[in-house]
Amino acid sequence: GSFSSDEVIRKRLLIDGDGAGDDRRINLLVKSFIKWCNSGSQEEGYTQYQRMLSTLSQCEFSMGKTLLVYDMNLREMENYEKIYKDIENSIAAAHEKISECKKQILQAKRIRKNRQEYDALAKVIQHHPDRHETLK
């Protein structure tokens, strides 16, 4: 029909959850149940009953494993959120430090410019005689 093999595989994976064979186990359980309902002898019925219990415990184990993985993923997400916030805070702190440094640079440039002007004035002044010489 119009179903491509990719779509079939995708559908099977969706039904199967994490690919652990859950749909196969459930189908097996249904078949076992039907066999158990139709079993003739008590011995055959008991065997089917044991098979169903085994399949059920496999399903429960798989479900437990899936829940554990889910919880772990949630904790990992929380952990990543915390790391992300820490990084954001570090970036903000770095930006503050940069702007503070820029202010300090501007101040240092201003002081340097003043010193240069002061030195230039001092040189000009040194060329003229001091007050004592002038009064003489």
TrEMBL record:
<comment type="similarity">
    <text>Belongs to the THOC7 family.</text>
</comment>
<keyword id="KW-0539">Nucleus</keyword>
<dbReference type="GO" id="GO:0006406">
    <property type="term" value="P:mRNA export from nucleus"/>
</dbReference>
<dbReference type="GO" id="GO:0006397">
    <property type="term" value="P:mRNA processing"/>
</dbReference>
<dbReference type="GO" id="GO:0000445">
    <property type="term" value="C:THO complex part of transcription export complex"/>
</dbReference>
<dbReference type="Pfam" id="PF05615">
    <property type="entry name" value="THOC7"/>
</dbReference>
<feature type="coiled-coil region">
    <location>
        <begin position="77"/>
        <end position="104"/>
    </location>
</feature>
<protein>
    <submittedName>
        <fullName>THOC7 protein</fullName>
    </submittedName>
</protein>
<comment type="function">
    <text>Component of the THO subcomplex of the TREX complex which is thought to couple mRNA transcription, processing and nuclear export, and which specifically associates with spliced mRNA and not with unspliced pre-mRNA. Required for efficient export of polyadenylated RNA. Plays a key structural role in the oligomerization of the THO-DDX39B complex.</text>
</comment>
<keyword id="KW-0175">Coiled coil</keyword>
<dbReference type="InterPro" id="IPR008501">
    <property type="entry name" value="THOC7/Mft1"/>
</dbReference>
